[in-house]
Amino acid sequence: MTHTPYPESYYAASANPVPARPELQGDVEVDVCIIGAGYTGLSTAIALLENGFKVAIVEAAKVGFGASGRNGGQIVNSYSRDIDVIERTVGPKPAQLMGQMAFEGGRIIRERIAKYNINCDLKDGGVFAAFTQKQMGHLEAQKKLWERYGHTQLELMDSTRIREVVGTENYIGGMLDMSGGHIHPLNLALGEAAAVESLGGVIYEQSPATRIERGANPVVHTPNGRVKAKFIVVAGNAYLGNLVPELAAKTMPCGSQVIATEPLSAEMAKSLIPNDYCVEDCNYLLDYFRLTGDNRLIYGGGVVYGARDPANIEAIIRPMMLKTFPQLKNVKIDYAWTGNFLLTLSRLPQVGRIGDNIYYSQGCSGHGVTYTHLAGKVLGEALRGQAERFDAFAGLPHYPFPGGRLFRIPFTAVGAWYYALRDKWGI
Prior knowledge:
Blueprint (H helix, E strand, L loop, with lengths): L9 H4 L12 E10 L3 H11 L5 E4 L8 H4 L3 E2 L7 H8 L1 H10 L2 H12 L7 E8 L2 H16 L5 E4 L1 H7 L7 E10 L2 H14 L3 E3 L6 E3 L5 E4 L2 E10 L10 H4 L2 E11 L4 H7 L5 E4 L6 E4 L5 E9 L7 H12 L8 E12 L5 E5 L3 E5 L5 H16 L4 H7 L9 H22 L2
Parallel strand pairs: 1-2, 1-10, 2-7, 4-12, 10-17
Antiparallel strand pairs: 3-6, 4-6, 5-6, 8-9, 9-10, 11-14, 11-15, 12-13, 13-14, 16-17
Helix pairs in contact: 2-9, 2-13, 4-5, 5-14, 6-13
């Protein structure tokens, strides 16, 4: 069988050392089989193992191969669509639960890092940067909305203040969320995998799920083995393929591109982001950036619908970086890579159950670092019979893409073109 390595990313090149993990061989029986060793799968496993469940994870490639190894590494609160949209969609009581959970993912990450002594370059502070007065108005409304749900670590910034935290003339203001922050995403996943194993869980790498045999005691099949379980958790997200057809129709994998510069001098790094916060702008099709533990600038953006790898990532992202930081024109790009995230039509996550014993969570739509950690905890609660929070998520609408799989990419690309024009014209 062909082994799938990590992409040639900065994250993979700077990953903490880990032990080799076996492929699944033969038959295994557990309480819960989890498909996917990314954040959702690992977080679910920890929540279950801490409560006495016997858990095995089957992973098609390597721990954290997906978004957790290939993303911006930013702890961003709430969901890809904010709580006001949820309030209008599901009504007051489920919205109240969703609002209470909107800021929990970051807390779970910090608790896990502390409890399991995970070395992943955690830094506090996230900035939302505005180009226009309309975007500032949105941030002011967002601050009031978040404070209504008890989230108070927020500061609105004017044009003078934002230049103190981001070394560019591009922004007219912004908002600082001190409960936001950033991490080395692959090292966080690797640390959580070690936590899973310390609690008695088993992770099988290079063991893609090829088929789910449904029934009272479902079985997950891999090329060389089987896992019989009482429950299955499907946590493959953008890398699930067509393993569960009823889930594939409701989502679309998208590619996001990231570059990492050569290490910058301490003086240069401090001039870009003096307080070492992470930053994302307020455009519909946003850019995001931050410093690494060794003073590189990570810069991401660009969306490819259908998750095809563009031919020249640097050519896409470097001009975006230089618009923000023209002082980096002579800086070398050491790494350029792409990874997938899973988009839903509503941009709200999809959580639910198929039959009595197959649970799933998918479609983070760009807020995967925080949402997946919350999702794992909520899935763990549901399997323990505490389903109130799970039901709140399950009540969100799961819309199929118009025109089915054939038309979802052009449909979404037209939408992106529309939003890009709005960004350009400031409307």
